[in-house]
Specification:
It is a single chain. This protein has helices at 9-30, 39-54, 65-80, 84-99, 109-122, 126-140, 147-171, 173-181, 189-209, 233-259, 270-295, 306-336, 341-366, 370-390, 393-403, 406-409, 417-423, 428-437, 441-463, 470-485; strands at residues 2-3, 213-214, 522-523, 526-527. By secondary structure, it is mostly helical. The strands form two sheets. The protein has a two-stranded antiparallel ribbon with strand order 1-2. A two-stranded antiparallel sheet has the order 3-4. Helix 18 (428-437) runs antiparallel to helix 19 (441-463). The chain is globular. 25% of the residues are buried.
Length: 545
C-alpha cells in the first residue's frame, strides 16, 4: 500500500548520518533564538545540500529539478526575510522535489495533493518503519557477531532508555538524587528541549531523504453527463435569465453610486455603503462560480446550447463587474479608515476570485476537464503565495498610511500610530520619514516616541548573529542615512500610551465625609417626635356635615 525508495545499506546509513548532522546543525543555529534571522536560510541551504548528496540522481531528474530550484530560491529569501510562509513554501518545494522520482511527468494537482497528504501523515513514523525493515533484512542474513552488529543492536534500547531515564529524572526528585549520587548530572529543561528539537528536525529531514507515497490514489470525482435532480435545460435557461437580471440591478446601483460618486440617499455614507457590500459580493461571485462549475459540466446537455453558453458568458462578465465593485468598495473603505495587512490580503483574494471565474468560463467554452481547472487554480495560488512570501505587507501598509494620513495630506484617515507600533519593524522607515516631515509638534512627539520603541526592538533583534537578516539590516542602514541628513527628534520624557501619547494619570479622588444623621428637633429642650412634625391639611367643614 505504501512505498519508499529502494532499501540499500550504504545509502541508508548515509542518510542517517545526514539527518543526524542536520539535527545537530539546527540545534546550534536555531535553539533558544527567536526571531530567527538569516541562519534559517542557511539551515535550509544545508538541508538542500544534504538531500542532493544522499540522493545524487536528483540533479539529473528533470521532474525534480524545477522544485529543487524553487526550494533554493525560497532558501535565499529566508536569508533576506525569514518567515513562516516562506518556510512552508520551502518545505513544499523540497517535498515535491523528493517525491518527484516516483511520479510521472504531468501529474495533476489532485493526485499530488493526495501524495503530499499521505507523505505528511506516514512520514512522521518513517524512521520507525525503516528500523523495522532493517531488522527484517538482518534476520534473513546468516548470524554473525561483530562490533558493528552489537552497536546496531544496542543503539535503539540504549538511546531510548537514556531518553526516558532523563525525562523521569526531570519529573522525579528521587531518581534525580540517585543520579546525582552516582555522579550522573540530572538533566535540565534545556537538555530535554534540545533533545526533543533534534529529534523533530531529524524526523523532518528523514521525510525528504526517504519519502513515502501512496500507490493507490483516489480518482477525481466526476458527475459526467448525468442530469442533476431538478435541473433541466429549461430551468437552467430560466435561472440564468433571473440571475442576469438580479446581477444587472446590483451592478447598476454600484455604477450609479459607487463608480460615479453620486450622493447616497438618506444618512448612508459612502464608507458604510462600501464596507457593507465587499465581502457578501465576493461570496456571491463564489456561489456563481460553483453553480457554473456544477451545472455546466463537459458533455452535459445544457453546455452545448448556444443560448445557454451566451447567458453564461454574460453572467460571468457581470460577476467580473461585481468583483471589480468589491475591490473598489474595499479601496474606498481603506481611504476612509486605513490600510491593513488583512485588507491587502482581502483585495488579493478578490482578484484571485475574478481569475477563478475567468478560468471557469474558459473551461466551459473550451471543453477542458476538471484536472485542468484544478491545476490552473493551484498554479495561480502558488504564484500568489510565492509573491506574498517575498513582499512585506506590513511595510506596504505602513508606507501607504503615512503618505495618505489626514495629518499629512488633509484628506485621508486619521493616522493610527498604535497600529504602526503593532506592525513593528516593517513600519520603522515610514515612522522616521513621518517624524522628519511633519510640522505638528504634538504629532512629532508622538511619532518619535513610537519610533524610539520600534528602533530599540529592531536593534535588539539584529544584535546577535543568529537573529541577523538582510532586510532588517537594510532598514537600519536607511534609518542611519536619514538621521545623518536630519537628526532624530527626542521625545519628551514620561510614560507613554500605546499610540505614543503621554500617559495622563487619573485625577486623585477627594474623600467625602459620610453624612451625619440629622439632629433631633426640640422645643424648649424637649424632643419632638417625627409624627408631630407632619403637616396635615386644614379641615374645611365640620365632621358629619
Amino acid at each position: 500500500m505504501f512505498g519508499s525508495h529502494p532499501f540499500s545499506r550504504s545509502s541508508f546509513w548515509l542518510k542517517g548520518a545526514v539527518a543526524a548532522l542536520l539535527a545537530m546543525l539546527a540545534n546550534f543555529l536555531l535553539f533558544q533564538t527567536f526571531p530567527w534571522g538569516a541562519v534559517l536560510g542557511g539551515f535550509a541551504a544545508a538541508w538542500i545540500v544534504g538531500l542532493v548528496l544522499s540522493r545524487s540522481g536528483m540533479l539529473r531528474d528533470r521532474r525534480a529539478l524545477p522544485a529543487l530550484v524553487a526550494a533554493i530560491g525560497f532558501a535565499a529569501v529566508m536569508v533576506e526575510r525569514p518567515g513562516l510562509l516562506v518556510w512552508l513554501m520551502f518545505g513544499l518545494s523540497l517535498t515535491i522535489a523528493a517525491l518527484s522520482a516516483r511520479v510521472r511527468n504531468g501529474e495533476p494537482a489532485w493526485r499530488w495533493a493526495q501524495r503530499l497528504l499521505v507523505h505528511a501523515v506516514v512520514a512522521s513514523v518513517g524512521p520507525i518503519l525503516d528500523a523495522v525493515r532493517l531488522s527484517r533484512l538482518r534476520r534473513k542474513r546468516p548470524a554473525r557477531v561483530s562490533p558493528v552488529a552489537v552497536i546496531r543492536l544496542a543503539a535503539l534500547p540504549v538511546i531510548g532508555g537514556l531518553v526516558f531515564l532523563l525525562l523521569f529524572a526531570r519529573a522525579n526528585p528521587l531518581i534525580a538524587e540517585a543520579l546525582g549520587a552516582a555522579s550522573v548530572p540530572a538533566p535540565s529543561g534545556e537538555t530535554i528541549a534540545r533533545l526533543m528539537g533534534c529529534g523533530l528536525v531529524a524526523v523532518m529531514v528523514w521525510t525528504t531523504l526517504r519519502p513515502r507515497w501512496h500507490r493507490k490514489l483516489i480518482a477525481l470525482p466526476s458527475l459526467g453527463a448525468r442530469t442533476l435532480p431538478g435541473v433541466s435545460t429549461a430551468s437552467v435557461i430560466l435561472s440564468l435569465v433571473v440571475f442576469n437580471a438580479l446581477f444587472a440591478l446590483q451592478n447598476g446601483l454600484d455604477i450609479a453610486f459607487l463608480w460615479s460618486g453620486a450622493p447616497l440617499p438618506g444618512d448612508l455614507t459612502l464608507a458604510d455603503y462600501a464596507h457593507r457590500g465587499a465581502y457578501p459580493l465576493i461570496a456571491t461571485a463564489l456561489l456563481a462560480g460553483l453553480f457554473v462549475l456544477v451545472v455546466f459540466r463537459p458533455g452535459s446537455e445544457a453546455t452545448g446550447r448556444p443560448l445557454v453558453r451566451g447567458l453564461v458568458v454574460l453572467w460571468v462578465a457581470q460577476n467580473m463587474v461585481l468583483v471589480a465593485s468589491s475591490i473598489l468598495r474595499t479601496a474606498d473603505y481603506i481611504e476612509g479608515y486605513a490600510l491593513t495587512r488583512f485588507r491587502i490580503v482581502a483585495m488579493i483574494w478578490m482578484v484571485m476570485v475574478g481569475i477563478g471565474l475567468l478560468l471557469i468560463c474558459w473551461r466551459l467554452l473550451s471543453g477542458k476537464d476538471g484536472h485542468w481547472l484544478i491545476d490552473a487554480n493551484v498554479k495561480v495560488v502558488l504564484v500568489v503565495l510565492a509573491g506574498l512570501s517575498v513582499v512585506d505587507l506590513g511595510a506596504v501598509a505602513a508606507a501607504w498610511n503615512v503618505r495618505h494620513a489626514r495629518e499629512i495630506d488633509g484628506t485621508g484617515a486619521v493616522l493610527d500610530l498604535g497600529y504602526l507600533r503593532d506592525i513593528g519593524q516593517p513600519a520603522l522607515v515610514s515612522l522616521v520619514e513621518l517624524e522628519q516631515t511633519t510640522r505638528d509638534p504634538a504629532l512629532k512627539d508622538r511619532v518619535a516616541a513610537v519610533r524610539r520603541e520600534v528602533l530599540i526592538a529592531t536593534r535588539r533583534d539584529q544584535g546577535g548573529w543568529r537573529g541577523w537578516n538582510w532586510r532588517r539590516e537594510r532598514r537600519l542602514a536607511r534609518v542611519t542615512a536619514l538621521a545623518a541628513e536630519r537628526p532624530l527628534f527626542t521625545p519628551r520624557p514620561g510614560p507613554r500610551n500605546w499610540d505614543g501619547s503621554l500617559y495622563q494619570p487619573p485625577a486623585p479622588e477627594i474623600p467625602v465625609a459620610p453624612a451625619s444623621p440629622s439632629a433631633p428637633v426640640t422645643i424648649d429642650g424637649a424632643p419632638v417626635p417625627p409624627e408631630a412634625l407632619t403637616i396635615r391639611p386644614p379641615l374645611t367643614s365640620a365632621p358629619g356635615v
